[in-house]
Amino acid sequence: MKKIIIFTVSALLLGVMACSKGEAKQADIALSTIQCGMCESTIERGMSKIKGITNFDVDLKTKTGRVNFDAAVIDMAAIEKAISDLGYQANNTIADPVAYEGLAPCCKIGGMSH
Ligand SMILES: [Cu+2]
Predict the structure, then answer these.
(1) CATH of the domain at 82
(2) In a domain, 2, yes or no
(3) pLDDT digits (tens, 9 = 90+) for 7-53
């Protein structure tokens, strides 16, 4: 009887741990339209509010975003959509046109050359 209880408790604990741990994944996303440091902070700040994203690092030089996320909560399509909603292209997901229009002039394509 005692053995069964211990087994049950440890199985429950394992289940809880698996749930809170989720499915940690990392991916690189091409952010081909970012222009400046403001884009970088817009994306990093915006992505920090998205559920399931644990970290988002933008590298302006390589125009790449490295995302750490919980695959049990969010998938790549939703992540790309969230970036698009901020006004930026993510891999092959083009920027939401309304969000793009709302960006500061320096953050639009070719912005740094003005
Ligand atoms: Cu910018």
Answers:
(1) 3.30.70.100
(2) no
(3) 666 666 666 555 556 899 999 999 999 999 999 999 999 999 999 99
Report the separation in Å between the CA atom of 20 and the middle of ligand 1, taken as the mean of its atom positions: 35
Q: How much distance in Å is there from the Cα of 1 to the middle of ligand 1?
A: 64
Q: Where are the beta strands (DSSP E) in 31-103?
A: 53-59, 64-70
The number of residues making up the chain comes to 114
Between the CA of 104 and the centroid of ligand 1 the distance, in Å, is 7
pTM: 0.80
Tokens 């959509």 sit on residue: 81
52 located within any domain? yes
Domain region containing 102? 23-113
Instruction: Give me the number of domains the chain comprises.
Output: 1
